[in-house]
């Protein structure tokens, strides 16, 4: 169907499923084990209701925001998803171009199909990019990656902490991994076993020994803000803030790691009061969530519960797999249209007006 017939983020998924090679669809769409968590990422949002306010002047709507001090046209970012060329020959550059047009921030994955420099070079002058880091057992490799990223102007380092071993995504594992033009072996140097799907083939270099003790080392090698991606309970969010990190992403990796992990939005409701009561939000510590965000209403629910921004993964992969970078531009525009309408109907003309009272989350934790 023509691009302008895509009306919601779900429409891109349907088109992508019909155009993607079987193996690529398996890699992008799969979750771990029984995919309970992957489905829960959607279900959790459906347990939160709105409490709209009336008779507030909603002529002018403004949802621009910042992430780590950098401007974004709405409180989302394009999160890291590996192997972009499985979906489209331009891979992650589709996301870079769309992010530039729509003024949002892209997080570059360690396991991108395009080289890191290619993705940075594809950005327009002044465009903000973050980087996602898988930590190598060989810390010298990690040091080089991090310091190169900083030199190239990356504005935040998101260290993935929920993947000491890649989850079992059986849909993906059933596919024999055909290396479709990606240079995934670059960052590990080791030979990989391709018999168990794309994910397992590329992840053998990740260090399961990574621990809190490594955090000062990261601080010592870079001035970039450090954010932990994949925090799943308040205890670890508190530890991250106390360790002097700059933020956390409450995330279960799109349901691709621990099955039966809770959704980011549910964990957010648990985390924010604990950080607040300990005074840990004062130094600009930011909390983000990702997983299952498909509607502007989801973004608003996250903001109401205290998230600074939300990450969105699969919908943008699907959008460019089906339509190239124009698909991603359209997907972001759809979110902006939804955002404008939702904020009007809620009586909240700015993000500051999205208070906790705008939602009823009393059923969020009762499944
Ligand atoms: C991911 N994700 C991910 N995260 C990460 O830290 N490093 C990575 O290399 C990848 N790769 C990756 C590939 C694919 C195909 C998917 C779908 C996801 C997780 C990602 O950053 C994010 O947590 C989820 O995608 C968010 O959920 P949604 O928006 O896809 O539902």
TrEMBL record:
Principal EC category: oxidoreductase
Catalytic reaction annotation: (S)-lactate + 2 Fe(III)-[cytochrome c] = 2 Fe(II)-[cytochrome c] + pyruvate + 2 H(+)
Domain FMN hydroxy acid dehydrogenase residue range list: 1-364
GO terms for cellular component: mitochondrial intermembrane space
Alphabetical UniProt keywords: Flavoprotein, FMN, Heme, Iron, Metal-binding, Mitochondrion, Oxidoreductase
Keyword presence, Ion transport: no
Molecular function per GO: L-lactate dehydrogenase (cytochrome) activity; metal ion binding
GO biological-process terms attached to the record: lactate metabolic process
Protein's recorded name: L-lactate dehydrogenase (cytochrome)
Organism this protein belongs to: Rhodotorula taiwanensis
Organism lineage: Eukaryota, Fungi, Dikarya, Basidiomycota, Pucciniomycotina
